[in-house]
Amino acid sequence: MNVKAAFPSIPHQDGSTHAHTSSWVASTLRRQIAEGRLHPGAKLSEQALSEALGVSRNTLREGFTLLDSELIINRIPNRGVFVASPDAEDIKEIYAVRRTIEPAALAWGPNLDVPAMEQVIAEAFTALAAGDIQKMADANQNFHELVIASSGSELLQELMGRVLARMRLVFHAMSDAPDFHSHYVERNAALVRKLSDGQRFEAAEELRKYLDTAEIELLGHLATLDVR
Amino acid sequence: MNVKAAFPSIPHQDGSTHAHTSSWVASTLRRQIAEGRLHPGAKLSEQALSEALGVSRNTLREGFTLLDSELIINRIPNRGVFVASPDAEDIKEIYAVRRTIEPAALAWGPNLDVPAMEQVIAEAFTALAAGDIQKMADANQNFHELVIASSGSELLQELMGRVLARMRLVFHAMSDAPDFHSHYVERNAALVRKLSDGQRFEAAEELRKYLDTAEIELLGHLATLDVR
DNA sequence: AAAACACAGATTGTTCAACAATCTTGGTGA
DNA sequence: TCACCAAGATTGTTGAACAATCTGTGTTTT
Q: ipTM of this predicted complex?
């Protein structure tokens, strides 16, 4: 399967002054990967990509350097660049991060915004009732972003953005991703109720348990697939 | 002041094939900056540096891309690259991260190693008694690294490594860095005693208070300097 | 026929030279 | 003193080049 074929040639041409062409390259590829147009494990040939994007090989490589630092791609010396395909170990790492940061943000974050969380949970419920899985998953994602935002740290939000991008990669790698989010909506709601009552530590513990079960479930599903 | 002059020409020549020259460049510059040989605000000229390091401008730029993603340098389009010089806002950001992650690692981390912590604290005390400030500061640093390691997450250790590198940059920017660490040794000791008693949450709260006062003290000192 | 080998072609890692765009500098004139 | 301006330096990006390494395909060997 040719990557170039799957690539809608996005000429880097539209007058918009290149703040940094390499960062434009990186964000373009990041989007393609996030949207699943470039699936995990796919090889990114320098010649093909530089032509498709309309940039030089040198600039493309600079973009690669960025994506590599974000763990979105995997660079193997003299072999090439591949879209990252997280394995079980990576999933454990992702959850180790989440289990540290998210409960801490709930327990101690100075920017906790309970009303906003209630709002998002309500949206998740209506989306769930309407059967709109995508919208519900989005609401769920928004909820976790709100949790992180409680920490009041831009850096952590950035880190978690990268970690969650990695999570999406996991789901893209599983062609038959079942609906992992639906049955967590009620749990998130209970969590927010605790927050409304000012029980931040209890909410944090709840979130930790939530992440524990989510990790186990995800790893379990992955194990059934890894028999390939 | 010429940067090239301050730069001990480190030829990139010693046969040892570097997996990626750009990452060698990045780590070399990282070290130079960490050791204070390149002080905050210094401009890193592409021509001068590429000559001094014995690499092409292209490769140097790839290294810059890496350091930029680590916030160690500051890249201004068409202007050049400068060693980052964190300001008060950056310090607040650093402490927001620490105040989230470090207590969480203490409270919930699966890899908590109390004996190792006791060991490090003991070292800090003997160094302090011997008047060896450097050794004491190192022990203090080790202590915080142990705290992070409790989280069991490589990614967080990496993130904190970058954050602490930034902290060192703050100290390098203050030519007259007073001894900030000495009076925290006893506090850390009290903290570890709580851990020995199994009181992880109390230790976490203690650590948060510690970080609060450290931030205030650091910001206070910075304010007295910023009158320049 | 299966496994080891060999070699031509493709790909990556890095350098060099070039050029437009932008910034900096030092001098000029008001 | 200040605004202006041209010459020179620096950055951002490209394209071609080359050595080193990998890949694939066909051939030899067992």
A: 0.91
